Amino acid sequence: MSTLVWSDDLALGIEQMDQTHVEFVELRNAVEAATDEQLLQRWKDLIDHTQIHFDNEDKWMRDTNFAASNCHTTHHKAVLDVMREGLNYGLKGHFVVVRKMNAELATWFPQHADTMDAALSDYLKRIGYDTATGQIAHPEAMPGGQIHGCSGNTDTDLVATEPAEAASSCGH
Ligand SMILES: [Fe+2]
Ligand SMILES: [Fe+2]
């Protein structure tokens, strides 16, 4: 049994991002607690929520000079692809694949929040980006040119952590 408990240590100081992350933890834990009858619907709910979660972060990056191909956005897509692959297995009755993937997310999420999301939130705060309006209070703090890395910090651009490796480790 994998556990993921929300704590203030996971908070990054961007209200909308933190609220979404609280919801992610709750939905992931609901999958953890699901009976076989509940499992696929709860996994779909988590996928739908994660799509919105990632779409929002990707939009904030596009709004603030990240290239569409930046590594954080690419990482989001890889994780969602793996989750959807898990759903396909689940629909064929391979519930263990979904459960194992969900367990992997308990490890993946704090790593992602601590690295890519933390770097993004630091950058958004530094440039004064408002997630509600899309306005940037300090555009002069933005780097020149498009950002291809993960953090928006050209000195310490973070190395991407690998997406959940559940698909490759589920024995299919
Ligand atoms: Fe996030
Ligand atoms: Fe993210």
Describe this structure as you would to a colleague.
It is a single chain. With 172 residues, the chain is an all-alpha fold. The protein has a single domain (12-169), classed as Four Helix Bundle (Hemerythrin (Met), subunit A). The chain has helices at residues 15-32, 36-63, 71-91, 95-126. Helix 1 runs antiparallel to helix 2 (36-63), helix 2 (36-63) packs parallel to helix 4 (95-126) and helix 3 (71-91) packs antiparallel against helix 4 (95-126). The longest helix has 32 residues, at 95-126. One fe (ii) ion (FE2) binds at residues 21, 53, 57, 117.
Give a nutshell description of this structure.
This protein is mostly helical and 172 residues long.
